[in-house]
User: What shape does this take?
Amino acid sequence: MATKLDGAASSHVPRSKAQKLKHALLKADLAFVMEAHNGLSAKVVEEAGFEGIWASGLAMSAALGVRDNNEASWTQVLEQLEFMADATQIPILVDGDTGYGNFNNVRRLVKKLCQRGIAGVCIEDKLFPKTNSFIGEGQPLADIDEFAGRIKAGKDSQEDADFQLIARVEALISGWGMDEALRRAEAYHAAGADGILIHSKKADADEILTFSREWAGRAPLVIVPTMYYATPTGAFRDAGVSLVIWANHNLRAALSAMRETSRRIMEEQSLTSVEGEVASVKEIFQIVGQSELAAAEARYLKPKGGDFKCIILAASRGSALGPLTERLPKCMLDIRGQPLLRRLVTTLNEGGLSDISVVRGYRKEMIDLANIRVIDNEAFAANGEAASLECAAEQLDGACVLSYGDILFRPYILENLLDSSGDITAVIDARWRGAGHRAAERTVDLAVCSRPFTGDYLDEEPVWLNAVHSTGETDAEIGEPSGEFIGLIKLSAAGALTVRQELATMKREGVLDETDLPALLNRLIARGEQIETLYVTGHWLDVDDVFDLAKARNLV
Ligand code: SPV
Ligand code: MG
Assistant: This one.
């Protein structure tokens, strides 16, 4: 009796898909591959535990709504196969029909299959365009030598040394008899086929079992018991068959289920009776790996700002705006249909910052935007920015952006700030003079830096902030200002801790209430902290008076 080949492949752990298929063909026990016709059914086959997938020509054609007569082009089939291979880890044995032509077509087919991660192909000894073997009688067979040439050409073209080429013998189905079937199997084996698929359309397995006996294990034997399905599988095992192909049952199951579901929904004009019987939408999400995408999004799509909290200091009234801020704090003034603060929060949100705390004081009830945390500085009338920041000290427990509540800036400024390397980085506008600030009319926070802006944004040499002082403050020792502090600071987690500690120290010393943000920066500098400068040239504004307000309305 024929025994299943027990080749060298059984002793090592197969790795590639082609190695896995080779192993399935050569190992001592009977192996099974199950039909799939697209990525989803391929996943189902894998999930069920099969060793491999039979990419059935009949099923792939029918799934595309066409006949098993090479109506789908070979490249259209290749597209389906690519989805199936991408969706699974188990090997795919492709039904390559006749090889889509002569030896030359087989060469290109095998090369492309290897490139798409397909483990093996089965080609049948018929003529292109083929007809399904279960249709009609006495289909013409290929010339034996011509078909052997197709096999040789295929084996010579494989780019993967373990790729498996199975030769399918149609002699029994076409009525040419057992001797011809054996003669062809022998010739195809000699031409280099890795296995022989002996096909039958009889309702019993007699001719298959006779063939196996005569073949006597000269090469792995593959069968498709679609018509002789009643034969117990043990008979194939005993006959030394290597691989059983369950050839079309997923397509048929899908057809039955789809018909029944459509019929019922049509009839009942309702989903209630089918709902419990079909796979849930959640199951679809699961099988296509939706959770992996969510994890990848968290990894690759998370905007930089996602790691940063933000504290906006918006407690002051903005008295220079006179009656305009009688009812509203200035951060809520309308800038072309939206409060300034909402525009600021939108810019921050778009930069990935979603944890935003706003310190309110003057007319606090007017600050009621969505998606912000509000923190109240009840004593706003008697204190300043440092005290407001101290009200939000709990939020200084990780990387953080500090912003004045009356500024607007272009998104790239925030992006560059988040990218800056310093533990504490302050944004300084190098164009404060040239921009025509009415320095005499209003107070500007002037920054003195370790060197002026060179005009080179790619300059990687850090620039340090030496001091910030207000216009009008004259102190020859401070030095020439390099720009204007715009009221935007980035703190790393370490920087946030430093600021938090300094706020606590100022509170202990009783100087918190009189300290504004520039003075806080100066204290940090005085105690040896390095504050990095991020130079910008315009593209931001603050709203201190009606002129600024007009400018802001023009800008947005
Ligand atoms: C297929 O599944 O397309 C096959 C097997 O070739 S059979 O339909 O049995 O010919
Ligand atoms: Mg087929």
Summary: The longest strand covers residues 483-491. Residues 56-59, 68, 95, 132-133, 224, 226, 247-248 surround sulfopyruvate (ligand 1) (CB under 6 Å). The chain is about 35% helix and 20% strand. The chain has a mean pLDDT of 92.
